[in-house]
Fold:
Amino acid sequence: MQIHQLRYALKVAEKRSFSAAAKELYIAQPSLSQQILKLEQELGIPLFIRHSKSVSLTDAGEQFIISAERIINNVDQLSDLMGKYSCLQSGTFRVGMLWIAGYLNLPQILTDFHQKFPGITYEITVDGSMALLNMLLSRSINAAFIIGYEEILRKHDDLYFQRLQDDYYVAVVNKEHPLAQNKLLKIRDLQECKIIMPSRESAFRKELEMIFERHFTIPQIVCETSQSDIGMQLAGQGLAIYFSSNSIAQILKDERHVILPLEEELHRTIFYVTLKELLDTPISKAFTAFMKQYPFPI
Structure:
């Protein structure tokens, strides 16, 4: 049973005539009659009673037409819905954002994209880079903005990524801190020094741990957070040394803060990442094309 056969049967039932139905369907009457006969043979029961110049429905035909109308309406609604998805008039885009996305002005990208395609809705997940990357790889989200390294991302053959912004990490201390007068922060100076570590979901966390191990340095971790505003406030209040990207530190600093370059330069790169398999789907394809033309830095 084919969809076009249902449409043919509905039109014949409406017109009560094969010739009139064929004319509106723009097909030859013999072809229409053959399709209806084929449908009846498949069902094993006649749907129409053929008269000399017209047709009428059998009891089974009447029930068939009721169900066929319902099916065709559902098919048409489904086709219309899929058309809206295809034309980006509808659909949901699941995107992962970093905790620091607000300071990087990344939400502005979604706002600008939404102005172009107002029918799209969004599910935003906020987490650390490692967690977001795992969500993407497990197909829980469609795309993400993460801090990462190109050599690591290239190890995943199913990923598409775009470099958005480069920065580097600094140390932030209270102006009364003993190290505040230094021109840069040596890693060995952090031995038994109170520090605020990034959360365990942060890609930067592992970098710091590797540096401390390489310099045989064991600082005193007093708390963990990847919330930049909280870390900056705690550093400004003299609780401990906080590590931040330079761009965010410059935005959030006040008269209490001193920003120190690190002895060992650590780069921080923001990437837009999605799955190659999604690049043929309407929303992901459009958003990725939008990202390629978006002006950076934001």
Summary: The chain has a mean pLDDT of 92. The chain is about 45% helix and 25% strand. The longest helix spans residues 59-86. The two ends are 55 Å apart (CA to CA).
